[in-house]
C-alpha cells in the first residue's frame, strides 16, 4: 500500500502474486479479496503509515509478523500505532525495494517443496545440545554442531 505500484518498477518473483492498493482504497481492497477469494495475505508492505487505517477492516487477512512498514515513517496516529503493534508489524528498510521483494519472496512464499511449518509447533529433539532461538512466528534458529553434512 503506497503511492507507487512497485510492480511497474521492479521484478516480482513468480512465486508471488502482487496486489497494489493506493491510499484510501479500502473498497478496492475488499473487491480484490472477494474476486480473488483471498483468505490471507502472506505479506503487506506499507509505504506510508497514515493510510494504514484502510487495513483495519481486514485484520483477519493478515497473520502476525506479515505487515511491514517503512522504518523511516513517523506515525503519530495512536490507533495506527496500536494496530501495527497488535499485528506485530515490522519496521524495515525500504531503500532497496527490489532486494526487499526478493527477500520476502524467499522467506514468506513457499517454493513448493512441501508443508509450511509454524515455528511455535516445532519440537526440537530434547537431546539437541545447541542453542535454540524462536524468532516470533517467523522462524526457529538452531546453532550447534551438525556434523560434516550440515556445516
Description:
This protein has 151 residues and is α/β, with parallel strands linked by helices. The protein has two domains: 6-108, Rossmann fold (3-Layer(aba) Sandwich); 117-151, no CATH class. Helices cover 21% and strands 13% of the residues. Strands 1-2-3 form a three-stranded parallel β-sheet, with no helix packed on it. Strand 4 (131-135) and strand 5 (139-143) form a beta hairpin.
List the helices and strands and how they pair.
Layout: H1 26-35, E1 44-46, E2 67-70, H2 78-86, E3 90-92, H3 97-108, E4 131-135, E5 139-143
Parallel strand pairs: 1-2, 2-3
Antiparallel strand pairs: 4-5
GO biological process, one term: protein transport
Organism: Streptococcus pneumoniae
Protein name: Accessory Sec system protein Asp2
Defining traits:
single chain, alpha/beta, Rossmann fold, 3-stranded parallel β-sheet, two-stranded antiparallel ribbon, 21% helix, Asp2, Accessory Sec system protein Asp2
Order of strands in the sheet with most strands: 1-2-3
Shape annotation: globular
Which radius of gyration do the C-alpha atoms yield? 18 Å
- Euclidean distance between termini CA atoms: 40 Å
Give the low-pLDDT segments. none
List SSEs in N-to-C order.
HEEHEHEE
Structural domain count: 2
Second-tier CATH architecture of the largest domain: 3-Layer(aba) Sandwich
Largest sheet: 3 strands, parallel
Enter the CATH topology name of the largest domain.
Answer: Rossmann fold
CATH class of the largest domain: Alpha Beta
Briefly note the structural class of the backbone.
Answer: alpha/beta
What level of helicity do the residues show? 10-25%
Average predicted confidence as pLDDT: 83
Amino acid at each position: 500500500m503506497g503511492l507507487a505500484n512497485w510492480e511497474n518498477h521492479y521484478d516480482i518473483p513468480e512465486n508471488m502474486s502482487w496486489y497494489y492498493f493506493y491510499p484510501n482504497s479500502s473498497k478496492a481492497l475488499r473487491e480484490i479479496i472477494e474476486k480473488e477469494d483471498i483468505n490471507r495475505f502472506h505479506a503487506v508492505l506499507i509505504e506510508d503509515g497514515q493510510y494504514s487505517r484502510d487495513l483495519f477492516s481486514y485484520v483477519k487477512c493478515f497473520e502476525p509478523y506479515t505487515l511491514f512498514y517503512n522504518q523511516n515513517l513517523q506515525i503519530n496516529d495512536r490507533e495506527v500505532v496500536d494496530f501495527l503493534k497488535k499485528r506485530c508489524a515490522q519496521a524495515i528498510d525500504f531503500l532497496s525495494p527490489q532486494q526487499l521483494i526478493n527477500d520476502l519472496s524467499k522467506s514468506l512464499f513457499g517454493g513448493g517443496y512441501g508443508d509450511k511449518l509454524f515455528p511455535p509447533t516445532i519440537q526440537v529433539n530434547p537431546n539437541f545440545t545447541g542453542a535454540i532461538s524462536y524468532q516470533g512466528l517467523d522462524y526457529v534458529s538452531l546453532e550447534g554442531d551438525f556434523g560434516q553434512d550440515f556445516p
